[in-house]
Write a structure and sequence with these properties.
single chain; mainly alpha; 0% strand; globular
């Protein structure tokens, strides 16, 4: 697999100033990985060995199922199922493993995901770039400060990685900016959700009811808490 399959210019995800830029980064990496694995990569022996061994999580199997190229998915599933059969049910030794060992082996084989692993590889490197740009580029610090929001999971991840090793002179500025942006969005979101709840009071009903920005407040709250847009 090429080292650059997951890399994207950081400016591409920060310049739109819409939603959480790290969610956008994750989504771009995820889309590229799914395109890659559903394309020619499924015929590369080293990739097939990894997909046979790691498999795919439920979320990414569903995403692959919704894409074109179902034959690619079927070919990967064919060899993955054979791998599972060989690892779990074709006992070649003289002694049968205990149920607990069988369960542990099944858990080991079903708790990994090829796409998740490659996405994490890409995210680690892209976030390192975010820290480096914030440390060295004044223009990027300004762009970072002007983001409309960071979702809670990505606020957490960015804050956990903010240390003197990555940000020698700007770690305090980074943490302050990240907190200000996230808290500001949270306050707006709390007001919108509260207003949404109040609109179900009979006194606020009617054709001229003023929902303001609250109509999609529940969906936006879920997205803030999970980093994922709610699925219909």
């Amino acid at each position: 697999m090429r080292d650059d399959i997951c890399t994207i210019p950081v400016s591409e995800v920060f310049e739109p100033r819409e939603g959480c830029p790290i969610c956008r980064m994750r989504d771009v990496i995820e889309e590229r990985m799914l395109d890659y694995i559903m394309g020619a990569a499924m015929m590369e022996p080293d990739v097939r060995q990894e997909t046979n061994r790691q498999g795919f999580c439920p979320e990414h199997l569903q995403q692959m199922l919704r894409r074109r190229g179902r034959l690619s998915l079927a070919l990967m599933l064919d060899s993955r199922l054979q791998e599972l059969d060989g690892q779990l049910f074709q006992n070649k030794g003289l002694f049968q493993p205990s149920p607990a060992k069988k369960g542990s082996k099944a858990a080991e084989l079903t708790q990994s995901c090829f796409v998740c692993a490659k996405m994490e590889w890409g995210m680690e490197r892209m976030l390192e770039t975010v820290y480096r740009l914030y440390e060295t580029e004044a223009d990027f610090r300004e762009l970072f400060d002007k983001q409309p929001m960071f979702c809670l999971p990505h606020y957490t991840r960015l804050m956990q990685g903010c240390d003197k090793k990555k940000l020698h002179t700007h770690s305090a500025d980074f943490a302050k900016s990240l907190t200000n942006v996230t808290q500001g969005h949270l306050k707006t979101l709390m007001a919108n959700v509260s207003h949404y709840c109040r609109m179900y009071d009979y006194r606020n009903a009617g054709e001229d009811a003023d929902w303001g920005d609250a109509r999609d407040a529940v969906e936006r709250a879920v997205e803030f808490l999970t980093s994922r847009e709610p699925q219909a």
